[in-house]
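Entry for zinc ion complex. Fields follow.
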Amino acid sequence: MGGYGSGRRWDAKSTVEETNRIDIRWLKKQGCLRPGYAGTISWSCNGSTTGTIGARMAGDNFILNYNHRGRDGEWVPAEQTIRLSRSECHFGGHRLWFECPWCHKRVAVLCGAGKYFLCRHCYGLNFASQHESEVDRMLRRARKIRKQLEADMNMMEPIVFKPKWMRWRMFERLRREAEHANSLSWAIAGQRWGQ
Ligand SMILES: [Zn+2]
């Protein structure tokens, strides 16, 4: 991200669930919403950087530059313009909001779960497990169970055969868990827009 100003870091306490979120209150506190601001925003988890994007102010727009991993796994540069809107406060002054680029609702937080930064409603992100890492975790869990059950490793194939040595109750429990993990991973992945 050459050419940008000093790096800005998220609070070191940011959890994995907060990765790739931008919070307008945090941006304001960091001075990223000043006219003419240009810099980078980084996320970190346990001390290591998990993502960096370029950001700049242009009038009432907050512009993000980042690389996004496309369908074929290649990184492609992307730019997204987010409109900022103001609401008057009761006691004077105003508050800034993002205007979600998809539903145009005023929101304080945008999530970059897929190609674009959108509000959590647009991504259907209503619980903490909406992340890439969560999809991977679900698939890993499903794969592990399939291995344990000596089942076909193709996730699209139903699990039908019980290993001889396993009790039926155990088999049923694991089968249900694998199928649940698999369908949940698809549900989460499918809710992402632009992928
Ligand atoms: Zn939205």
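NOTE: Residues 168-190 form the longest helix (23 residues).
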